[in-house]
Amino acid sequence: MRTDEPREQRGDASLPPGQGALPPVEDVLAAIATGLWRWDNASGTVTLDAEAARLLGLAPRAQTTTEVGVRSRFHPVDWNEIHGIVQLAVAEGTLAEARLRIMDEQGRHVLRTVRSRTKPVVHDSSSTAYELIGTLQEVTEPGPGAAARAPVTGDWRRSREAFLLDAGRALAEARSTEEVLRVAAGLSMPGFSPDGLAVFGSTGDRLTVVGHHGHHGYGDDDPLAAMPLDTDYPAAEVLRTGRAVYLSSPQEYRRRYPTTWPLASRFKRQSWAFLPLTVAGRTMGAWMAAFTYPVSFTPDERSVLTTVARMLAQALSRAGVAESERELTEGLQRSMMPTLGPEIPGMSVAARYVPTGGGLQVGGDWYDMIPLPSGRIAFVIGDVQGHDVRAAGLMGQLRIALRAYASEGHRPDAVLSRATRFLSGITDGITYGSTDTRDDPDHAATDPRFATCLYVEADPATGLLEIARAGHPEPVVRMSDGTVLQRPIAGGLPLGIDPDADYPTTRLVLDAGETMLICTDGLIETGGHDLETGWTRIRRILENYDGFSEYAEPAGPEYEARSGPSGADDDLETLADTLVQAVHGPSSHHTTGPLADRREDDIAVLLLRRTGDPQERARIRRTMLTIAQAEPERVAGARGHLRDLLHDWADDDQVDSAVLLISEMITNVLVHTDGDALLVAEVTGESGTRRLRAEVADSSDDLPHKRHPGELASSGRGLVLMDLLAHRWGVDPRGEGKSIWFELYEGSASADEGPGAAAAFSA
């Protein structure tokens, strides 16, 4: 027997002695100014008693009128509100309660405000016909202090609209599930705010907790965290049926869900609302809002909770998609961006990759480090055209192909030759792609793409580098004393343009203490720079960096850090961070170039440093480059290269003399021989008393002869200039060819100002 049922009254037995029977219901309602009405949705008629008719501004008598006649007495805004409240009450089988403003016949002035409480009665569950039976009672508008607890009309409505706008904006800006839950936990609903939130989902046939706030008992081993969906639990019922569950008291919770009530009682809540999270007609989860105080869940409060649940579902759906995309791109980046691998005796390596375009965490730029069968190490850096997913996919394929070709033992030129044929093949939509373009009318999936690439094969023991270049920016070398030189490297077309392209190999030696930088054009051009101004900025950063510590190469065979002594690694890592921050960090906004600062290109950086004796590093500054017969325009580059080498030389006139002599020597090789010119320039000694030795070698055995050209002669002045401008010069025959050299001494008078130059012809 239930003890909470009201005691049945029979006759006058329950009344105190001496009291009569209760008055008729009509008299009681008239005494408290409450009217009765019945609204028949099927017939469109409304039946009113005298008091209800008076409250609605009609003649004060019992009557049956039309729905249109009654509707004309309501404020338009209130009519729209009550329509939604009634539909919700019909769906959930609850009371519909609302405040309504009654207008005069002209609809200009508010006569009074009434409160309506009705109970929907559905006669046929298969149809939409229903009746509303309830009461009307005049009420006063609440004051400002009670606006938050008032029903639909007045300040409460404005507070609710402002709350929903703020909630929608805050949830729309959340980018992760954690942020969505944090925003939802911070929402202050008008008049009632939950202090415990939980979002439930489903995995297979089990209920899962996506996230929670204010319920610190939830954990991986909590029974609520992984119960079957057929469990008698409100959230599971919401997921099964897609209908909300409102529990106004612990007694109601215990009565409706006795099985799971012991699990919920430990959280000490008084009221609960479980609402479906529905997106595109599919219930993706359930949202629980728990309160530490009793909440009756009026239709207005349910309307607010339902609206918040819809916005929360949309926000969680967007956050889930964004998190999946981030997980995909981060996983793609981890799989495509390799670690630098094992330690390299005698060398230190550092690398950086910064995705900056299109919102993706990986793009078309990449770097790689490949151990070769010969014991050498190959370093690769490249950039596939574009900043989209297709560029990232092609990058992954090309990187794997390059690694395969290098691991087979091919030389740098052969590796790039095979790579260009490979890229040309996979971007050929006719040969390798599908001819059905109905789903790709613009041929975006098979459009030709090219890639730039720089391939370096390094011998750690000797510092010898063999480099092949495919349309990629040339490397930069920072010498031990801070001098920065851009190394001219012979190259060919970018990969994928010509499947039969050739890629010549350039050799240079990385001396002890020197650091080579290879990068993609994102490091150069980010911030509105072009190649020229961008290299100027990079040069300034490298020249001003003074973080390299003085350390000696370890004597034993064991090495501590990834690829060299710990001091070298730390310094190189710091330099890598400095380069990236200088072009992509906050300070880079103050050093923008002449172009628009779009910052939409990815950045890949690879630094290679040769370790060794610090004293030996400080004494020698050496560079070497080759000028081919087919590239006479590189003579100008050689002149600029020598000026960069002598950037801190004390005598500018001597620098001009050295540049003139180098230009003459290289030009003579290109004009009078059939081979290429090899330039080697070396600066030794302490500042102020240094020596420059420049040497140009070629494959011809013909030795130059000093002549006496006339004023109108167009040639023959090379050795004359050597005799006038150099302190020492000479010609050294070799087994295959010869070399012409000269020396200049810093701080000494030029040869044309002194006693004369000494020439040496070695046998």
TrEMBL record:
Enzyme class: hydrolase
GO molecular function: ATP binding; kinase activity; metal ion binding; protein serine/threonine phosphatase activity
Pfam families recorded: GAF_2, HATPase_c_2, SpoIIE
UniProtKB keywords: ATP-binding, Hydrolase, Kinase, Magnesium, Manganese, Metal-binding, Nucleotide-binding, Phosphoprotein, Protein phosphatase, Transferase
EC number(s) stated in the UniProt entry for this protein: 3.1.3.16
Highest taxon of the lineage: Bacteria
Domain PPM-type phosphatase: 344-610
Protein name (database record): protein-serine/threonine phosphatase
